[in-house]
Amino acid sequence: MQHVDGNALAGPFADFFSFDVTTATARCNGCGSVGELARAMVYRSGAGTVVRCSTCDHVLATLVETGDRAWISLSGVSAIEVRRG
Amino acid sequence: MSFITRGFSGRSRERDDRLPPGQTLVHDFPVLSAGPTPEVDTAEWEFTIRTESAVHRWNWDEFLALQIDEVDTDIHCVTHWSKLGTSWRGVSLDTLFEQVETEQEYVMAHSYGGYTTNVPLDELLDGKAWVAFEFDGQALEPEHGGPARLLVPHLYFWKSAKWVRGLVMMDQDEPGFWEQNGYHLHGDPWKEERYW
Amino acid sequence: MSEVSTPGATATPAASAALRAVPRSGWHVATVAAARRETPNASRLELEVDGWPGNAAGQHLDVRLTAPDGYTATRSYSIASSGPGTRVTLAVDKLPDGEVSPYLVDEVRAGDMLEVHGPLGAFFVWAPVAETGDARPVQLIAGGSGVVPLFAMAQAHGDADDPVPFRLLYSARTPDDVYFAGELQRLVGASAPFRLDLVYTRRAPEGWRAPAARITRETLEAAVFPAAEQPRVYVCGSTGFVERVADWLVELGHDPRSIRTERYGGT
Which InterPro entries does this chain map to (chain B) (predicted)? Predict the structure, then answer.
């Protein structure tokens, strides 16, 4: 299955976060690299959205959505930096 | 604020008594994936079952030398599609477990690429599950889990782990990849066990 | 993610203000004001979006369609327009096995209403040097329908009469498949510096300087700003196109941190 990049996270995550996640910077728990989530690799299917580190493939985040429920995991990132402008 | 979009019906949805609740029939074979498609050479492929006391291993040739079953079955994906009358060839988990002694009752299936999914052992035995390497008369394509995938057709299809490389026995049930992220620990399509 | 983010090192107060000015997204009702063919395989939709807060050049929106039985399908589309106001332009390519794009290309007509979520994404965006203080040249590289957000940037550049040098390298199948052909020609002649390099992959016009062929590393190198000029590069297209081009750019010495990509999926 083809992946897209983290730009595609803007819509799905906008319902849950008060900032644009694509410009937020995260550190990967797998390899320690740091980058904007817009640069991550995103696998989207009906089952959910899986965000992977573009350096090491480690799963950074997942989003599973059904009609009225959603599950968000950020278990693959150690921290997210949000710019206040 | 959702409203009906004029002229939009989505994919055609047919009804059939063989469909569990909330499912619709498809004729193609949608691909769902949580990551890149692993390219696994059968020369490198290995299947293992790890118990409290031993690790059992089969390479590709040893695996194909086991008794091979023909399986005709319906498959049901949690994303609401079902596919009826699919045909597979594979090795029954009963055959694999003939050589395995274990007191542990739960299984974590592990895949090339890192995917995991959990299934109780008694849901894999007695003719309920296979490690399948052919679909519709052809070698299983990598995007559908080839060289071999788990086939557990009585549960939602995410339990039928693609690119399966082995089973690890566990004392207690533990969530796999999707199960940690909202999906049901068990996943019976007739009970609509989709999410927590 | 291999790259350290650049904004901390280079952001100016003006750049921060521009980012802060990106409005919070929301769901809106869009009324189709006009729908017409853009190419044989694509439509241009003009949407009048109730409550739209305006958008930056390069942003996208999500379109949600709902069937009578409640089934919904949501897809992302880049926005071809930018700036304040409630009028939004999309150009939608029809995917052969698509579920939403055939509806938007073949079925939708003026007066129809759609749900849209946006504006979305503050990473793959461009703003004039007057707002950002960033005077590096800008190289746009488009594969097929990937031109849409890059056209928005080029149009915004022209509208702002921005002095930063702009180039667009645009790979299209045939002359008939070029999106915004008239608008792009007008930008070539406008006062803001803009160069257009078209590459045809299947059929070139008569007398074209090169036979139809896919972009190679050599044609890429010949068309884009050299790495020494430290251009900012925006690449948009299919996943395969974007990955080929991004790899070549890095091989040609471009700083990975100055390359921003948007993949459409597909092949």
Answer: OxRdtase_Mopterin-bd_dom, OxRdtase_Mopterin-bd_sf
User: What tokens appear for B86 in the block?
Assistant: 């699919």
What's the number of domains chain C is made of? 2
Answer for the pair B72, B64: CB distance below 8 angstroms, yes or no: no
Our CA angle for C40, C41, C47, nearest 5°, is 105
Q: Is residue B11 part of a domain?
A: no
b/e sequence B8-38, b meaning 16+ C-beta within 10 Å: bebeebeeeeebeeebbbbeeeeebbbbebb
Q: How far is A9 from chain C (nearest CA, A)?
A: 8
Nearest residue of B to residue C97, measured between CA atoms: B11
Which range marks the domain in which residue B95 is found? 24-29+41-191
Clarify whether residues C133 and C259 are in a common domain: yes
Domain range enclosing C114: 26-120
Whether residues C216 and C110 share a domain: the answer is no
- The pTM (predicted TM-score) of the whole model is 0.89
In this complex, do B7 and C112 lie within 8 Å of one another by their Cβ atoms?
yes
Decide which of C120, C145, C169 is a domain's last residue: C120
Domain boundary, last residue among C95, C120, C145: C120
Strands C42-49 and B106-111: unpaired
Contact B8 C115 (CB under 8 A): no
**Which of C5, C20, C261 has its CB closest to that of A5?**
C261
Question: Which residues does chain B have within 8 Å of residue C73's beta carbon, measured at their own beta carbons?
Answer: 8, 10
pLDDT in tens, chain C (267 residues): 222 222 223 333 344 444 444 556 789 999 999 999 999 999 999 999 999 999 999 999 999 999 888 888 899 999 999 999 999 999 999 998 888 999 999 999 999 999 999 999 999 999 999 999 999 999 999 999 999 999 999 999 999 999 999 999 999 999 999 999 999 999 999 999 999 999 999 999 999 988 999 999 999 999 999 999 999 999 999 999 999 999 999 999 999 999 999 998 764
Structure tokens at B133: 């390497």
